[in-house]
User: Fold this.
Amino acid sequence: METEIQTQIKPAAEINGQEKTAAKKNRGFIFVLAALVIGGGAFGSVKYIHGLHHEETDDAQIDADVSPVIARVSGYVKEVRVRDNQFVKKGDTLVMLDDRDLAIKVKQAENALHAAQVNRGVAEAAAIAAQAGISSAEAQAGTIEAQIEAAKINLWRANQDFERYANLAKERSITQQEFEQATASKQMAERQLEILAKQKAAASSQTRLVTSQSGATAKQINVANAGISQRQTDLEGAKLNQSYSVITAPEDGVLSKIFVQPGQYVAAGQSLFSVVLNTTPWVVANFKETQLGKMKAGQKVTVRADAYPGQKLAGEITSFAPATGSKFSLLPPDNASGNFVKVVQRLPVKIEFDNSKEEMLKQLRPGMNVTVDVHLD
Assistant:
């Protein structure tokens, strides 16, 4: 009998224990569930409140000024004086091209300038000679004019003598020989005046010719001066091109990978490599167009670089791009089709640092990924 009673009591005790265990499990589950609900609600509330006053994106990169090093003249690379990732200062020699062809062109330009100067000297000598000829012709014309005046006086006197001797000859007061001498003197005076008149005309013609030649030589001098100016310009251009055979750093900065080697031919306008300028970098953050409603220039921004977790950098929005990033792509999207699917676009926003952590900024490199948090208030 006792055995049966004990057998009946055992199951009842086990049942009570199982019920207590189940109750404990239920209470633990409720506590965990309540904690999850409370934690999730609190997290959601914090995120919601944060979202009201902030806009975030991880589609952002570090950017900086990058200046390409471009060959201004064509030629073969003679020497490369820098290496990858080297820091250079403005004016440092980076690459030297073979300038022998350019030196020959400089010499040719110098010779052409010398020839033009010689031509001008010849023209100036001709102008001086022409001016001397003008002076001589004018002096000769003046002498002939004086001789003509004297011949006119002689002719007047000879005429007076002839008329007087003619009257005396009619009266037979003089001999025939004296009358013939007076006649001969008159004829000689007339002949002398005719000769001087012709000489005067010839002198005038010579003066006009020499004057014309002087004008021509003056024009030749002007042409020679223009030629000298042109040759000087050619010489300066040849020297400038020769100076371009030495390629220097445009600004202070760090070089990218060097793509040229000695002996390589480079063409004018070809980009050889780049220099990342030693200036303060900035951030270009691509925000969705739906995030831009409350954003404006001047708002404070917190920047976190993926390369340096835990580090915060302060900055502010300085400008917004004039168009979305896709609009500047090689093949901009054209939505004028029947199967148009609306895609949220992103607009680049420029963010500049406040330089409070200058040493930290020096460690940033263009292209690094960052996360930005814009404070809307």
